[in-house]
Amino acid sequence: MKNLLITAFALISILTAGPAAAITIRNSCTFPVAGSLRYKDTKVMFAQFRLIPGQKVHLGTGISDTKLILRTIADNGLDTAAKITTTTLDSPDCYIELKHTKEGLEVSVE
């Protein structure tokens, strides 16, 4: 009986578990992009990354619902200073695509 209860509890736990929140970032640019994630309330650094063209990374798996700040910069060795892009993320469960435009780096959040 005890084994049946443990098995039933384990099965119920697996079936009711939802997907963990995670931030997925994909670099669609033709150059590397560097960036960081910070908690919005405390400005504490959560993660740093550097993505080569076409690379995708998952960050923040399992973090609670909190607002984050994403800061990105083109890392292509330009002689002039590159513009830093700042984006506020309302949920840690999102897909972000980094694209290159005439105005600079564009962040698309879904």
Offer a quick outline of the entry.
This protein has 110 residues and is mainly beta. The chain has one helix at 2-16; strands spanning 23-27, 33-39, 45-51, 56-59, 68-74, 85-89, 94-101, 104-109.
Describe this entry's structure for a reader.
This protein is mainly beta and 110 residues long. Helix content is 14%, strand content 45%. It has one helix and eight strands. The strands form two sheets. Strands 4-1-7-8 form a four-stranded mixed β-sheet, with no helix packed on it. Strands 3-2-5-6 form a four-stranded antiparallel β-sheet, with no helix packed on it. β2 (33-39) and β3 form a beta hairpin. The radius of gyration is 19 Å and the shape is elongated. The N and C termini lie far apart (47 Å).
Shape: elongated
Number of strands: 8
Helix content: 10-25%
Average pLDDT works out at 82
Oligomer: single chain
- Sequence of strands across the biggest β-sheet: 4-1-7-8
Q: Give the terminus-to-terminus CA distance.
A: 47 Å
Q: Number of helical runs?
A: 1
Approximate strand percentage: 35-45%
Broad structural category: mainly beta
Characterize the main sheet.
Answer: 4 strands, mixed
Low-confidence stretches: none
Radius of gyration from the CA trace? 19 Å
Q: Could you spell the SSE succession in H and E letters?
A: HEEEEEEEE
SSE inventory with pairings:
Elements (H helix, E strand, L loop, with lengths): L1 H15 L6 E5 L5 E7 L5 E7 L4 E4 L8 E7 L10 E5 L4 E8 L2 E6 L1
Parallel strand pairs: 1-7
Antiparallel strand pairs: 1-4, 2-3, 2-5, 5-6, 7-8
